[in-house]
Structures are given as structure tokens and as C-alpha cells.
Amino acid sequence: xxxxxxxxxxxxxxxxxxxxxxxxxxxxxxxxxxxxxxxxxxxxxxxxxxxxxxxxxxxxxxxxxxxxxxxxxxxxxxxxxxxxxxxxxxxxxxxxxxxxxxxxxxxxxxxxxxxxxxxxxxxxxxxxxxxxxxxxxxxxxxxxxxxxxxxxxxxxxxxxxxxxxxxxxxxxxxxxxxxxxxxxxxxxxxxxxxxxxxxxxxxxxxxxxxxxxxxxxxxxxxxxxxxxxxxxxxxxxxxxxxxxxxxxxxxxxxxxxxxxxxxxxxxxxxxxxxxxxxxxxxxxxxxxxxxxxxxxxxxxxxxxxxxxxxxxxxxxxxxxxxxxxxxxxxxxxxxxxxxxxxxxxxxxxxxxxxxxxxxxxxxxxxxxxxxxxxxxxxxxxxxxxxxxxxxxxxxxxxxxxxxxxxxxxxxxxxxxxxxxxxxxxxxxxxxxxxxxxxxxxxxxxxxxxxxxxxxxxxxxxxxxxxxxxxxxxxxxxxxxxxxxxxxxxxxxxxxxxxxxxxxxxxxxxxxxxxxxxxxxxxxxxxxxxxxxxxxxxxxxxxxxxxxxxxxxxxxxxxxxxxxxxxxxxxxxxxxxxxxxxxxxxxxxxxxxxxxxxxxxxxxxxxxxxxxxxxxxxxxxxxxxxxxxxxxxxxxxxxxxxxxxxxxxxxxxxxxxxxxxxxxxxxxxxxxxxxxxxxxxxxxxxxxxxxxxxxxxxxxxxxxxxxxxxxxxxxxxxxxxxxxxxxxxxxxxxxxxxxxxxxxxxxxxxxxxxxxxxxxxxxxxxxxxxxxxxxxxxxxxxxxxxxxxxxxxxxxxxxxxxxxxxxxxxxxxxxxxxxxxxxxxxxxxxxxxxxxxxxxxxxxxxxxxxxxxxxxxxxxxxxxxxxxxxxxxxxxxxxxxxxxxxxxxxxxxxxxxxxxxxx
Length: 902
Description:
Helix 13 runs parallel beside helix 21. The strands form five sheets. Strands 1, 3, 11, 12, 13, 14, 17, 22, 24, 25 and 26 form an eleven-stranded mixed beta sheet that branches. A hairpin with a 5-residue loop joins strand 19 (about 360-365) and strand 20 (about 370). The chain has three domains: about 1-50 and about 580-705, no CATH class; about 90-520, no CATH class; about 720-900, no CATH class. The protein is elongated, with a radius of gyration of 41 Å. By secondary structure, it is of the alpha+beta class. It has 26 helices and 28 strands. It is about 45% helix and about 20% strand.
């Protein structure tokens, strides 16, 4: 039996070489593709591990703080922090600190926004003082934000310049000395409560100057009193937040972000000034984070013939009067913010009222796009009784479109309590120096950096010219970062119902707690279990909302802002919402992909070898029939055929192992000699498994049928209705072989569909987050090498099926040609047979690919279906093209010999 097998291998060299080539291709492909899969897995695990640990592992929020949108999408909104004011008690914080495994628990208590003022001097041109007679100037400021798309006009203010002396009377009114000893009031003090804090009565300013004695000491702002000027008043909403200084330093190195002064003391808080006024320390941000500027235009109005009384009631005519522009000045938020810090560094700044802002609400439009819902805040938030001059008025930006509900907390402390709490500046910090951690796993939930919102489409990019930045509008979409940082010990003077009105959180002042777990080294099972165990203990012990953010990554989410007031256009913005569990999902997906790819490789290789082995057995049916008639038993015939295939498999495995190493190096894949050597036993096993059915068929050889196969019965005869119908009939005549071609191609197309779908339309697990995108870009080339090889094997299997069909039906094709068929018609027949197999395999593969991609994505979006259709179309075209080579063999058919043999 062994000698027979050797003689078959030796003297049927062509068949042996063909079978060896097929197995060699399968063995080499197996080694290269498994190396590609392993390389992809190693790179992915390395990337995920390197970018695993964020700033903290667990986020703890008040009970009920997690929104339905966050729950349904598995995300945490990046700007949620500005909408949470209290909800966690100090006792719950201490409980979390004591839980075993908690390395750092860093709380943040958001207090609210206090308005801080800065006045920027706008001097009149030097020629103004030199002009004779009285002069009247009007200056109007427009507040520009959102990349110049939002322009909020402020009511006009006025400046009166006289050659006469001016002075202040006992009531504080400014008067002008007239010839003859009489007086005229020119700048009266405001009276009454303005109807709105944004009306002209509240937002306008009136300045009276004398060419002789300036403003008579009414107001100087460290400017020469004899040089007339106007003032642009900035009202900065500055967010006060309280931290545990020691815990914050451990978490993000906040103590190393100082640019001047000293760090907060652990217990520094409720202090008292010499006059009994309560004080508390603050660290101020070195920059405001506000993206806004003010554009002020100064116009000279017609010279008045006599004294002018500057008040909103008397200036109605001048509001519409035509003036001559003498000056246009632009002042920036950065320019004004430097002046804001001055009073803090000196005598301190009192907090008489602060405002809290709620979270942004969303709805989905008809296309499923998230849309921010505008809200309407009452003017009573800004305490109109306080807004008597532009210096004390809130920013006029608050009249622009708002998305956050606002609430005011007015200071109501008695004399015994000491009055307004006063901030004392102890240091300045640079937000950029606060440790940001890895960009791919950054959790944008800290209080120090503003949340970015980048334009998502061309129209928004053209409108904004960059990211959407915070403005002076407290209800704007992008919230301001915390710019004043104090300690938890200072909270009693800020959140006491005896000090401030409104719904305060004196009993549960903490907004969030960020927890880092000890012993976390990466996305390994031990670390993940430690994080899960600590999160579970926090949830059970406190009843708070707990989110595991370790292994998370920012996920771009598109949010639409509808058109708003003061020129705000409709915008589409992209924000990095925190996608939870990205690292674990990626590693799980990669493991699934590796197992799937390994299985697909084995399936294609087995099918390819089985097809070649079956063809070899069918070509020897006469020989096997003769051996059976000579007394060879079925087990002996089975063993002979299987032994030949095992020998060829052994040779193919050795050659494949040798060829795989340089091929893997050429593609930049990780293939060790040990993995290459694995191709030898795998090739033998594949050859044996693939040869079981052909060997079984060989053992059942019938001597009579093998020598002269029977003619089909007449009752089964049919007349095809054209080349396509004949091609379908020919494919069905050998169902086993056709099925092998269909399955081989289906496996390749399914693999291509899954990968193309992941690349083109997959948003959620493998790509979509920053970490997922980085992994996908890194391993995508390796994946396409593997898929290309798998598809190639499938296409070659189809070509092999067509080739074997031509060989076995050579006499039939010769007979058809003798009937007058042209060679082009026969070629169309063969190519159509390949296309039929290609259509069946491509459609089946596309369906399997859709199912696999939907399993990863959890959904079946239209783009995924289009991708599958494109992959199926490509499979049909490639297989039809692959059938052209076997079709060319028709030219070499020995027609006369085949007809004579029949």
C-alpha cells in the first residue's frame, strides 16, 4: 500500500504538484494569517494597556444624577459638572475614603458663579479736550462671542464734557457751575428700581467731565482726572468650587499648578477679618477661559447749546441722533480678566450673591440628532433691585439664547454673622499645568478646563472659525470652568441658609467624588475586578450613582444648537462624551475577532484542500475501480488515498513553514519560528480532515461504474433556456463541488464585510471613541492583509471548481463546439458558471458579514447594509474575473481526440 502511494505521487507528477501547490498555499496562508491575527492582537492589547488608566477609575455622583440619555448610551456627559450643586454628604465622603482599595477619593463641591467686575478705560482722543465749548459723546459696546456669530448690543452710554467747573452735591449728583453763580445738574444719581437689569436704565452709564477740574473726584480708576474717558465694564461670572486640597494634589498634582502664591491649607476656611466679616481663601485661575471680546464705538454728537442732564429719561432724542465716529476700541476677556484679579489680591472681594446653573437638556430630532433645548430664565435671577448702574449690572450676554436653568442665592446674613463672605486670594494657578493624563483615555470631568465643542460640519466651521468657547452667558451651551478654588472647610459660610437664600446644600455640599483604586495596573482581570469590587462597595455603602470610567475614552457625539438670538446660527458641534468600558470592549472584540479569523482560516484551508483532494480522487475513479476488482478492500483503499494526502500535507507543511517566515517579515507581522513550525502538523491534520470524505468515496469505488459511468436517465433530461440557465444546470450537476466553492467564497466575503463595516459605519465598540479609533488605525492594515488572503483563497477555490468542471466535461464541451458553438459562447458559459457560484457565495457571505457586524455593533444602520452590498458586488466581479483563466483553457481542448474517445 505504501509503495502504491509512493508510485502515485511519483508517476502522477502533475496531479501531485497541483495538489501540493493547493496545500502549500493553504499552509502558507494559515501561518501568515494567524501571524497577522496575533500581530493585531498584540498591538491592540499593547495600545489599550498603554492608554488604559484615566485620571481616576470611578466617578461618584449624587443619587439620580445619571440621566436617561447617559444610561441608554453608556456615556457620561462632559459638561455635567456645571449642573450639579451638592447631593453628597461629608459622611458619605468619609465612608468612601475608608473603603478598602480606595487609593484617592477627591471631592468637588460646586458652589456657584459670582460676578466680578473689571473696568477698562477708553480715553477720548486728545483733540476732544482742545475743542471749544460743550461736547456730547455717545459710546455703545457690542459683546461678541461664538466666533463673531453672536453680537449682543448694550444700551448706549453718554459722556458730557464742559468748559465750566463741575462738582458733587450732598446727594451725590454732579452739577455744573454756570456763569452768574447758578448751577445745573448734569449727572444725577440713578433713582428707582429699573424694570429690568438689561434695560437702558440699568445698563447705561453717564459721565460728566470738566476741562478745568476733570470729574471733580467722582471716579478715577487710576487714570489722570483731567483726561476724559469712558469705561467698558466687564462682569465676569466666576465659578467657585471647593476641594479637599490634599486629595486633589494626590489625584492630579493640583498643588504643582501654582504660578504664584501658596497652596491651600487643608483646614483653611471659615476665617474672620478684623471687622468680623467672614473670609475664606481662594486660588484663582491665571486665565478666564472666556472666548469673547467687546467692540466699543465712540461717536461725537452735535454740540449742545447748554448744560445736558444725562439720564435715560432725558436722552431719548440723543439715542437716535446721528453722530461722528471718533474712536473704535476692542477689549478682550483676557485683558479684562487681569484687572479682575487685582481686588482679590488686595482687600479681597465680597460675595453678595451667587448663581447656580443647571444641566443642559437634550432631545432627538427627526433624524436622531441630539439637539440642545433652549430655556427661558426670568430676569429676577439677576436681582433687578441691585442693577442700578452698568457697573453693577449683569452681563448683557444673559439676554442671548440660554440652555441652562439659573437660580440666584442672595446674601441675607445678619450683622451678627458679619455680612458678605469675603474671598482672600492666596495664589494663582495655571489650568494648563493640571495633569491632563493620557489624551486617549482622558476623562473630561475635571473642574479646571473648559469643555470643548468643536464644529462638526463645514457650515459650523465657517461660522465659528474654531472651537465654541465659553462666554459671559451663564446659560450658554459651553459652561465656564471653575476659576476660584477654595476648600471644603469654607463651605459653611457659603452654603448656610443663615447666610444665603434659596435651596442650598449645607448638609450634602459635595457634587462629585473621583476615586482612584489602588493596585490597578492595566486592563487585566485582576485590576478590573478590583475596580468593580470598590465600585460595588461604594454603591452599596452610600446609595450614590457610581460609574466605572477606567478604560473609558472620549467618544465624539454630534450635538445640534438651533438658531438663536443676536445672530446665533444653527450649529452642529462635536463633543467628547465619556464612553464607558471602551478598553474592555475593544479587548473583547479583538479576542472575538482573533478566534473568528482563526476559524475562518481553517475553514477556507480545509475547503480548498478538500476540493483539490476530491478532484484527485475523481480523476482516479477508473484506477480505484480496477483495484477494487482485484480484491482491494475498502479500508485498504481508504488508507491508501488518505496516506497520499497526508504525505502531500506533510510536504506542504514543511514548505509552508519555510516560506511563511520571510512573507510575514515582508508584511511586518509577528511570526516566530515556533508558530511557523506549527504549520507542519496543522497542514497534515488539514489534509487528513479534508481527505476523509474523498478517501471514503474512494473506498466505496464500484468497479463497473468506475470503468464506464452510467448515462443519466431520460426522465431527468431537460433543455436549458440559454447560457445562464445552462450555467445554473451545470453548477447543480456537481452540488458538492459547487457548495465548496460557495462556502469558500462566502467566508472571504463575510470577513471582508465585517471589516469594511467596522471601518465605514461602526460607531461604538471597535471605533467611535478616540482609543478605539487609534486601535482601528493601528491594526487595520494587518486586518486587510488577513482578509485579502482569505478572499484570495475563496476566489481560487471558485476558480478551481470551474477548472475541474471544464476538465470533467471536456468531452461534453467538445461535442457542443462540434455543433457550431463559438469559442466566445463557451467562454461566456464558463464565466457565467463562475458568476453563479460568485453570486451565491457573495450573497451568503454578505448576509453572514451583516450578522457578524450587527453582533459587534448591536444595530444594523443603513451604511452597514450598503457596505455589505458593496462587498457582495466585489465578490461577484472578482469571481467572474477569476473564471476567465479556466475559460482560456477551452482554446486548447483536443476536440477530435475527445470526440473519438466518446
